[in-house]
């Protein structure tokens, strides 16, 4: 297990980068705590696999350093970093049995035969392959082979970190939840530092202690699932996390008031006078239909079982509202209002912190 430090880290695939647009990974300075489970979450091309490959040693960064427990491993090969990595597509030895595939990392390091047998049996049970341990890997399905890859990554207890690069892509949907649960259980049992790359918010939020959201080569927020939901630090986080994502509307903000589409609404808190591209962001869970607020036109209602999603139009912008199960669409649903505790304000994509309230009786 290791604390992983990213120090002034950046990477470009261009031999002569001339500006930020040439960097697949823009400057990062982060400490990732020893023993925590992290998910790197973002859309394709945001830089998450590049970062994972730098941590594993498959790629050397254009600038900066990476440290394990304070030791600079920037130029160290993968073998010297004592990590295990599981890739998007299965990598197995077809001519070996499932048992020998799982045992290979331990035998390669000279582990005791009795320990190898015990550990392989444990991992075989964990990935649901006890019954086929003595079967050759050749001929197994893609998802079965990926389970072998997962098992081989987990079989060692002494690794600095376990790295997963979208490992459930080829796994049947009904198995994904089970394997995520098993990975979480493994982390709780052994306390490995784990980093899990995915574009699937469900995988990230159910697996990780901390989710690292990446956008355009940058880490735009790192936090718990609750923090990402309640206080998205960037509009991309609000859009990417949640189903549906956060409503974002262009606005003019002055103190505790906002003008959206020519209509003034209260924000509940003062946000000063932000400059640049100013937007108000509110999640559908904090959005209400009724007779007060911004004029809105209901376009359609989607019943997804647990709740209803109301798709409405507010001055040309789609706004989503979530209604609890059994709650009907109000007959007077001509306007949309926002719960003050759910309102966020953004300037050029980044969250603006509300101003501290003036104590009662103090000079304004």
From TrEMBL:
Pfam families tied to this protein: ABC_tran
- Keywords, in A-Z order: ATP-binding, Cell membrane, Membrane, Nucleotide-binding, Transport
CDD domains of this UniProt entry? ABC_Carb_Solutes_like (cd03259)
Q: Which SMART domains match?
A: AAA
Q: Which residues form the signal peptide?
A: none
Identify the residues that the record assigns to the ABC transporter domain, covering every copy. Answer: 4-241
The molecular function terms in GO held by this entry are:
ABC-type ferric iron transporter activity; ATP binding; ATP hydrolysis activity
GO CC terms: ATP-binding cassette (ABC) transporter complex, substrate-binding subunit-containing
| Residue stretches in coiled coil | none
User: Which superkingdom, per the lineage?
Assistant: Bacteria
Q: Does the keyword Cell membrane apply?
A: yes
Q: Which family does it belong to?
A: Belongs to the ABC transporter superfamily.
Supply the name of the protein: Glycerol transport system ATP-binding protein
Natural source organism: Jannaschia seohaensis
């Amino acid at each position: 297990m290791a604390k992983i430090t990213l120090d002034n880290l950046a990477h470009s695939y261009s031999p002569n980068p001339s500006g930020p647009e040439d960097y697949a990974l823009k400057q990062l300075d982060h400490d990732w705590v020893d023993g925590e489970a992290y998910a790197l979450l973002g859309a394709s091309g945001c830089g998450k696999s590049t970062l994972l490959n730098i941590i594993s040693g498959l790629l050397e960064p254009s600038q900066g350093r990476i440290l394990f427990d304070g030791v600079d491993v920037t130029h160290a090969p993968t073998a010297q970093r004592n990590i295990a990595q599981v890739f998007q597509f299965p990598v197995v030895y077809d001519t070996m049995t499932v048992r020998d595939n799982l045992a290979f990392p331990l035998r390669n390091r000279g582990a005791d035969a009795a320990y190898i047998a015990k550990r392989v049996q444990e991992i075989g049970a964990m990935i649901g392959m006890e019954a086929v341990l003595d079967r050759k890997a050749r001929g197994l399905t893609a998802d079965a082979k990926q389970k072998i890859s997962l098992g081989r990554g987990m079989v060692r207890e002494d690794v600095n970190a376990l790295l997963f690069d979208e490992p459930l892509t080829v796994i049947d949907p009904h198995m994904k939840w089970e394997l995520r649960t098993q990975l979480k259980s493994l982390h709780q049992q052994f306390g490995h530092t784990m980093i899990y790359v995915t574009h699937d918010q469900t995988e990230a939020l159910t697996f990780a202690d901390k989710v690292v959201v990446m956008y355009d080569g940058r880490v735009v927020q790192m936090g718990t699932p609750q923090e990402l939901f309640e206080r998205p630090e960037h509009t991309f986080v609000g859009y990417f996390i949640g189903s549906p994502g956060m409503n974002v509307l262009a606005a003019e903000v002055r103190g505790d008031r906002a003008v959206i589409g020519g209509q003034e609404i209260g924000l509940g808190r003062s946000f000063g006078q932000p400059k640049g591209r100013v937007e108000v962001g509110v999640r559908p869970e904090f959005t209400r239909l009724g007779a007060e607020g911004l004029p809105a036109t209901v376009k359609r209602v989607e019943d997804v079982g647990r709740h209803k999603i109301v798709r409405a139009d507010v001055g040309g912008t789609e706004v989503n509202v979530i209604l609890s199960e059994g709650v009907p669409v109000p007959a007077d649903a001509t306007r949309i209002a926002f719960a003050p505790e759910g309102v966020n304000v953004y300037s050029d994509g980044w969250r603006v912190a509300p101003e501290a309230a003036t104590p009662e009786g103090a000079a304004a």
